[in-house]
Amino acid sequence: MKKIVSVLFLFFALQAISFGQQPDKSVSKEVQLQVKNYTFKADRKNISPVDHSKFAILQQNFKRPQDITLACLSCHTERHSEVMVNNHFTWDRQEEILNHGSISVGKKNILNNFCVGIGSNEAMCSKCHAGYGWVDTTFNHHAKENIDCLVCHDKTGTYTKGSGGMPTPQTDLNLVAQNVGLSTSENCGSCHFVGGGGNNVKHGDLDKAMLKADRNLDVHMAMEGENMSCTECHITTNHNITGKLYALSSENKDRVSCEQCHTQSPHQRNVLNKHTDRIACQTCHIPTYAKANPTKTWWDWSTAGKLDENGKIIEIKDSIGDIVYFSKKGNFKWGHNIEPEYRWFNGLAGHFLITDKIDTIPVQLNTLDGFYGDKGSLRASLEPSKIWPVKIMRGKQPYDTEYNTLLQPKVVGPKGSGAFWADFDWAKSLEKGTEYINQPFSGKFGFVETEMYWPLNHQVAPADQALTCTDCHVRGEKSRLSQLDGFYMPGRDHYYWVDYIGIILVISTFLGVVIHGGLRVFFSKNSEH
Amino acid sequence: MKIYIYQVFERFWHWTQALLIGFLALTGFEIHSSYTLLGYDKAVQYHDIAAWSFLVLLIFSFFWHFTTGEWRQYKPTLKLLIAQIEYYILGIFKGAEHPTKKLIYNKFNPLQRLIYLGLNLLVIPVMGISGFAFMFLNYPNTTLELNGLDIVALIHTIGAFSLITFVIIHVYLTTTGHKPLSAILAMLTGWEEVDEKSARAMVANEMEVALKITKAHLKTDENEKELLDEALEETETILGIKKEEKFHNVIANSGAGYFRINKLGYYGAVNAAWLRIYKYDSPEEIIGKHFSLSRSKEDFAELEGSFKRVLEGETIPHGEVRRICKDGSCGFHTVTMTPVVMNGQIIGVEGFILDTTVRRLAEKELLENKILMEELLKKKKD
Q1: Do both A208 and A221 map to the same domain?
Q2: CA-based Rg of chain A, rounded to a whole angstrom?
Q3: Residue A329 or B1, more confident
Q4: Which residues pair with B191 in a beta bridge?
Q5: Are residues A342 and A469 in the same domain?
Q6: Nearest C-alpha in A relative to B172
Q7: B153 contacts chain A (CB < 8 A)
Q8: What ipTM is given for this predicted complex?
Q9: For testing the chain B interface, which of A484, A497, A520, A526 should be mutated: the one with the most B CBs within 10 Å?
Q10: A229 and A177 inside one domain
Q11: CATH code of the domain made up of B2-193
């Protein structure tokens, strides 16, 4: 018996000791990595295999950018066939959309709650089109010379695009043509950082600051760290770039994921690895977004169009320099270092099409599919819904009060064309815009609140800044997941009635024994006398 | 008086379990967000480790209870249950006696049996199962998956509050023993301080049982079990306790020594336990010797008086006596002497001895047993 007891004692004693010796795992050490086709910084040899300035065909005096494209294709034959099906060029994809079936969607025909839509505004929007000359519906998507190679392959950093996607006049086409190479973050960022009309405006997690990132802004792109570029995650083969934007791409394919390098179980502690079953990596590792520069969170078109007494455009800034009113665009709200909102998401998205009737307010411009009970077998994605951090862009935009549809305004154009930014007349702007895309318009319009979801993926924080247990496992509003319901989460949830009854039980039991004990003392003293 | 009631493992089990329950409650309610103490991360980590430790302890205690037969202590009984409840509600204030007696073979009162059984069969398993379900039966467990933690969390929380309530009442009721701290000290040391009456009952119980068994071992022609039942029934009648399952092995190994002395005072038979107590190696060394051999002069004079009374037909539980062992060392034991009757004639004295050396060293008050046992005998005769 004594032996058994001493063995038992030893067992528990060892456990007790091991309590004290748990290594501090809050600081993650070497994580398990499964990198594919990735060259670590230490192994990178920045030697270009080709010097394009030595090719005679690139030494000609280019007048038109289209001629550069043709020159590229004279060596890189057939590459145009890859680009011409890429949505950077088509702004269109055939996608299976929830509740809509297989349809053709993209920037070409989807509305958002920033600049609303490209219809009749192409000349402006195509500044970010990988092509030349898209100003209206006559643009030829099948002419290979209309491809813009340079926007993605310029190495000089001097290439800038203007109206219709044409290079600005001051661009030295010869210099750019002779200095091309693999795409860098600068190339991607020239469009993706400035979506919505300015740096970091649209995404909130794509910002020029990432080009000179420190560890706190982005562990992957940090200059003192691995200094990764976009394409190291967005692996590209034959001009097919992985990592579609969730806000516009409904099908769960060609995505980029953290797991492609970090695996499903990158943590040392099992309890954390188990969290990855239902929680996206981004949820904990992107604790805030818009870290370096503000992002737009609210855009109210309904107030746009006010001019000062001289008929001039008004611009109002708040105390920290963010524009809160601009006559062309209306009222704005901005966010700095924002805590994301969280939603269940299984990788599939739905879209509000220009033909859809408004049935909820705020109108959901895109819906992230997913819920707690979705463990992957219910949907085509076959992946369980996970909790994702999202930027939710909110605002007010024009709609047809009669037909109950969102409306396409014309915003860009010369004075008298009906363009809102020139004439400041909503009725005309909407009439021209809808006419351009053949949308029925009753002539009666109002402004309706809309919401659009932008899942966050970038600007991953260092591990020690990741969320901790009590960011979510805490009662009430303090929990970042307080908005998610339909499931029980320890620490956040409790049954009020169980707790109340339990506490009353414990307190009354305690009082009961105190009274009982008191009576015993009382009676025993009495009997002594 | 003190009696040895809780064995080493029992005490280890009890206190480890107490610590674990306390620690699980402490960390558990932090995980429940009732307060912040260790930090959520550590609370979860420690709660899990404590849960696994509890499981290991449960496995050990399971084996202990079944190999020792101690599980029988938890068999529920309705007899005296009401009396026990009435005692806590009313009797305790009037200074009434506990309606049941604590015995080695019957440690728990009917209410304790019921509560502890509920604890061991219901609350602890339910807490364990719901707790491990919390840990394992979630997505993507493919064999069995709970669709959410709501039910297990509900059960686990209700269980936690029940346990806290139990602990409060349990700790309080430990103060209702002989003295306020005697029950807690007993669980710490194994020795419980009891009132004289309880002690007397205990000793009588031990003696009766051991005597019958020893007799049975020597008289192989009689059915041992029947004798045992008879002895226990007798004891139980005297003590007013419920008829109990017999712990044959426990009693058989209790170390009672048996002896038979003829009319003239010479040893006729002794058993192995007797030899062990007196430190002899074989029966040959003592059979045929006079019993004065193992006594001091004063002790012998006193014992001889009793011996003569037994020869006249009395049964005497002598209480504690001092012996001189083979090697000259001293020891103490209780002795009970009854006449040996053959064909209507008393031909000698037989009896049994229970070694009390250890107990005596621990508790000198045992000398008073002598008086107590005589009182008991008188009562029995009446």
Answers
A1: yes
A2: 29
A3: A329
A4: B4
A5: yes
A6: A513
A7: yes
A8: 0.84
A9: A520
A10: no
A11: 1.20.950.20
